[in-house]
Design brief:
The structure is a homodimer.
Chain A: E1 11-14, H1 24-34, E2 38-40, H2 43-49, H3 51-60, E3 64-65, E4 68-72, H4 79-99, E5 104-107, H5 118-139, E6 143-145, H6 162-172, E7 188-193, H7 194-197, H8 203-214, E8 215-220, H9 244-253, E9 260-262, H10 267-270, H11 274-284
Parallel strand pairs in A: 1-2, 1-9, 2-3, 4-5, 5-6, 6-7, 7-8, 8-9
């Protein structure tokens, strides 16, 4: 990495943060320029460039790929729909392997259209993950179940607490099987996003339960008061009420040793000049590190 | 009750549902007219009429008071602020006693202004409830801790799951002390609102744990897909994705035998002619009863 700015160790940019301003090639170049050593692409951005070309460019800029967003979306009203989701996840695993991504993040999906059967959707998620795990292991790509905030239970993800995500991991992979012989992480684990879990009264016990083995990714942004939109009003680090310093310390105390990946879905920050967004993240990040 | 419509047993109207259209006197009269045998006033509406006058009018119309909304809001940045909250809760208990309300609903409060200390706020909630419980018992008014959806953790209520609410109950009242000798309910329990808890993967075990003893109120409305506002976009029964029939059955199987209280905070339903709102609730309610 040959940066115009001092390197910020352990910082990663999730491409959703500047998705409205830049394409993936611009983001890769900007991360290197801003001294941000990690990147986590979404698949829409990856598709623009192609996985092979993106992987080469990311390598050439010396960046780590802290995750690929996203697989998942398993529940569907029909068997054909569920099978299509599984096939799409297999392709995502292959892309994550091409990128050398540290994990494929799974946003598991909500209720099928017209359904009120939350328990049934959760079963579909379990079955979907079970159907792709062996391919992920063979490809060397850990699967990271991301529990999403309960306000997304209906339409995006019916896995809504870290404890529930870990229950899923233990049900599908009771042995905590390592990704490969000697690997420090399991092939199946979790992505912890501050925005989704900060409120959880059982968070500390769940983090301890996850441990180094299952903690595959850590995403950060902030919860604004007041939040004006359920999806697109996440806050810049430090602008909200999440005690990110404390949370980061607790995540690391539980055994996580990876990057802090900044993922801010925000109409406001999408309207800001993207170099300013990255400079702001650089500037705010130290206060989020214990 | 002398109703123009057939009585709908077990149905109650929370005044928030038509708060923009009617005053409390109009609501009391309308409940009787629509065959809705229960009412649960908010304190802003109660203040218009006064507790004594409201109690007399509610009695004259043969309605049950299924709760008074709301006490709580315990956390504050200063000791004086916390003391003021406690005094306000004591007045709310007295008003609930005057009304013969089945409980005082506690919306416990979020983070004090400028604070990121969620754990500290939760301690303030515990201390606040502990400070008012003996007054509630003396007044014969059970306190119902209402866990609010995690999306309100910052600004309205830092008690966000039923399990957490029950942990609070057990910490403050380890004996599950009955309201009075021979009473079937404890002096401290919970209000379960479908909107706040429907997503919870641990809901069934928590309901069973609560039991008849701690289950003091059951509120219903629906979760819309898509939800456009965090506070004021609740759905009419049947318009969303909550399986209210299943949930009602589970709540009753856990021992609850009280009313279904309809509480819909919704800009849409506040714009509708209120007799239409009540007629819609009447019409939709049977599908929510097991």
């Amino acid at each position: 990495m040959n940066s115009a700015n001092p390197l910020v160790p352990g910082l990663s940019l999730n491409t959703a943060t500047v998705r409205e301003q830049w394409n993936l090639a611009q983001m890769i170049e900007a991360c290197a320029r801003h001294g941000i050593p990690g990147i986590s692409p979404w698949r829409d951005k990856l598709a623009e460039l192609g996985a092979e070309k993106a992987a080469a460019m990311i390598r050439a800029h010396g960046l780590s790929v802290t995750g690929l967003c996203r697989g998942g979306m398993f529940p569907a009203a029909t068997e054909a729909g569920r099978q299509a989701a599984i096939e799409d996840n297999l392709r995502a695993i292959d892309d994550a392997a091409t990128l050398g991504a540290k994990c494929l993040v799974l946003v598991c999906g909500g209720l099928p259209a017209g359904s009120r059967d939350l328990s049934g959707a959760r079963t579909m998620v379990r079955d979907g993950i079970a159907a792709i795990l062996s391919h992920a292991r063979a490809a060397g790509v850990p699967l990271a179940i991301e529990p999403l905030h309960p306000m997304y239970a209906a339409d995006r993800c019916c896995v809504n607490t870290l404890a529930q995500a870990l229950d899923l991991c233990d049900e599908i992979d009771p042995q905590h099987a390592p990704l490969r012989n000697g690997a420090s992480v399991a092939a199946l684990g979790v992505a912890v996003d501050a925005y989704h879990v900060w409120w959880d009264p059982e968070l500390d016990s769940s983090l301890a339960r996850a441990g180094a083995n299952r903690l595959l990714a850590y995403h950060i942004c902030d919860w604004l008061v007041e939040t004006r939109d359920l999806l697109l009003d996440r806050g810049m680090l430090g602008d909200g009420v999440i005690d990110l310093r404390s949370l980061g310390r607790r995540v690391r105390a539980a055994g996580y040793s990876g990057f802090d990946e900044v993922e801010i879905l925000s109409r406001h920050w999408w309207s800001v000049e993207p170099d300013v967004v990255l400079a702001t993240i650089r500037e705010r990040h130290p206060a989020c590190v214990a």
